[in-house]
Write a structure and sequence with these properties.
elongated; single chain; 2 strands; two-stranded antiparallel ribbon; 2 domains; binds zinc ion; mainly alpha
């Protein structure tokens, strides 16, 4: 088994390459940078490598190194920006939508907004009043319905007066 010698990506020293692209002395710094880059990508996974480097305050070379090693995945690098709805090339990385889907989406948004407004109108506005009137008209007075208690008391009263008059 041949010993793999490599130049440290951080300090340029020749070292025994085991798994990392940096020497043992630089490993801690490399790990720290990796943590920073990973944190940045965790919150903003669509950043380009140079944006990641800037946000994480690490060297761009360091970001590229980690991408090449497969330690981190930069969306912008690993795959071209595609539309999340139809898979066509997206207009921008952050939007992840193609032009036609963006237009469709804005129409859908407008429609959803309109439906929402209509529902609100129905709840508290014109439609609501209209319906209540209709419902009132539709209910006919039922003759067989039990008479309210006030009437019973009133109808009992004249009986008593008639009885006492005899
Ligand atoms: Zn080194
Ligand atoms: Zn699309």
């Amino acid at each position: 088994m041949a010993i793999s010698m490599d130049k440290c990506a951080r300090c340029g020293k020749i070292y025994h390459k085991i798994r990392s692209t940096v020497c043992a002395q630089c490993q801690d710094a490399e790990d720290a940078d990796y943590e920073k880059i990973r944190d940045v990508l965790c919150y903003e996974p669509t950043l380009t490598p140079d944006q990641v480097a800037e946000a994480a305050e690490v060297e761009l070379a360091c970001v590229m190194r980690m991408i090449n090693e497969g330690l981190i995945t930069s969306v912008s690098l690993s795959e071209p920006a595609v539309c999340g709805r139809c898979g066509a090339p997206a207009i921008s990385l952050s939007k992840r939508l193609c032009q036609s889907c963006l237009e469709k989406l804005s129409i859908e948004c407008a429609e959803a907004l309109r439906a929402m407004r209509e529902a609100q109108m129905e709840r508290e506005g014109y439609y609501g009043v209209h319906r209540t009137v209709e419902r009132k008209r539709r209910t006919p007075p039922t003759p067989g319905s039990p008479k309210p208690p006030t009437r019973t008391t009133r109808s009992r009263a004249p009986k008593r007066t008639a009885g006492s008059g005899r």
